[in-house]
From TrEMBL:
InterPro entries: NERD. Keywords: Membrane, Transmembrane, Transmembrane helix. Residues 84-204 form the NERD domain. It holds the Pfam family NERD. This is NERD domain-containing protein. The chain crosses the membrane at residues 37-55. Residues 1-21 are annotated as: Disordered. The keyword Heme does not apply. The keyword Isomerase does not apply.
Amino acid sequence: MAMTDRGETGDARGQPPEDRGSLDFREILARPDVRRWLLRVAFAAVVGVLFAIVFDPRVGLTAAVIAVIADTIRKARAGDGGPRTSAAERKTAKQLDGLDKKGWRVLHARSIPRDDDGVSDGQIDHLVIGPTGVFAIDSESWDKRLPVRTLSHTRLFHGPFEKKDRLDEARWEANQASRLLSLALGQEIPVQPSVAIYGPSVPWRVMTVRNVDVYSGGKAKTYLRKRPKVLTDEEVARIADAASKVLPSKFG
């Protein structure tokens, strides 16, 4: 988790430093906002085809457009009402209170900026910078009646539901934070993605699934502290200051 000087020879994947700011097609598809629009378009297409078969193509096209508009309005209304956090986020935030007195910096509800200076739908619930590294924590509240299990460290299930998309989103958010911090500081800044689960029992301390650390929400503070120290106080302060600039608050 230590910072590595990027220098002039390229990053850890063999790419030149100037290429880190660009996004390839796979990274674009991994964006939460892009994926939501793809799902929205797919849903509208299904609606349009069904209405076209039952009635005629013009009715199908109209139904597809209405479906897109209705879903967009529903999402917009769901986001109205000012700053709001989930119960799971508040629980994690409560655990993290007081860490600043022990050399940690915690930033809550940080947005992932777009390349066009807009703000994406991506959000890091808690970005934590401390002696043991930099962590992006997403707090999840799941139905406690359904068990949590993994398969070969590559698949995470909540009851019958696979959580691949949730893990991919957490990893994407952490990767974007790492990219932006590395560009801002001129050094490689790894950011470890993790998911803190509230509700069901999690039958392990920490399990890494698809490169994302997964653990019970009540152990978030222990997860952060029970790791080797890799950053000095000065490095923690530098990274936290940069993070507050490149990852704006979701609530302004």
